[in-house]
């Protein structure tokens, strides 16, 4: 392909010149260094390969720009073992002044027996917005079967609320009590021979955002506080059976974006919560007071590129090979020098 003169000129650029095999010899020290260096290269390669396969999660913060719409989806699954579904009311109120009794969303109430068995599902009424400044407590047009309520109390029935609701993306609260049945409560208490409501409860699940997105995030990502109140249990003490106890949860909601390796984004909400209880002479309730952070947190998945992995592998092989050659050369020269001294009788 090339002429003799061209080939000789090309050979002058050879940086890896070869020695004839009869001019090289194997040594024991060289074999030991070779074995050790090969093991080191193998260990470093496995470590780098694991790093290449692993997925890192990076976080950053920026000001929220109303990602995810103007409504927040709240997912609920709460058991009230001593609170019948017949007088169960879920209300929402925010700082804009709107107050809704029986809110927008898809909620289902399930009757619970005294042993915790699910008895009957009841569709929760939705869409009852009472506008700005409306209070909505004690509306006289709420129908109620008083005999059924009395029987529910005598049978020690409870209620499970599950599903989701939509709330405005502003600070506010949603609370559970019997405000929608205020006109009936005095007669109900007399018939059931009770002094107040027992709002002992178990929070099976509470989260903010699309449930499908939350499930995908739990499977894919490691970071984030999405469901800190799950499995929270609040039981009314025996010494407070005749006194109303109001439970309050203070929730700080943080808009959060998750971006996976395919650049798909999930807009959900992290939150942290504190709680307290206090006795009251009025109708007890369970309040979930939420506030919104103006800052959005974003978690992004990243993976090391193949070119970076290739460079790292070359660095491992070249670096270990070079250092091993230096060590072998030092060891070999030292051994040869010692043997020469021993032959000359100068070792001592």
General description of the model:
It is a multi-pass membrane protein. Pfam families: COPIIcoated_ERV, ERGIC_N. By secondary structure, the chain is α+β, with helices and mostly antiparallel strands. The protein folds into 2 domains: 28-54 and 304-348; 60-302. It is built from 6 helices and 15 strands. It has helices spanning 4-11, 28-53, 146-154, 185-192, 211-220, 306-344; strands at residues 56-63, 71-80, 89-94, 98-101, 105-112, 118-123, 129-132, 158-168, 172-177, 201-208, 232-234, 244-259, 265-280, 286-292, 295-302. The strands form 2 sheets. Strands 1, 3, 4, 7, 9, 12, 13, 14 and 15 form a 9-stranded mixed beta sheet that branches. A hairpin with a 5-residue loop joins β12 and β13. α2 (28-53) packs antiparallel against α6 (306-344). The radius of gyration is 36 Å and the shape is elongated. The protein starts with a helix and ends with a helix. Residues 127-141 have low confidence and may be disordered.
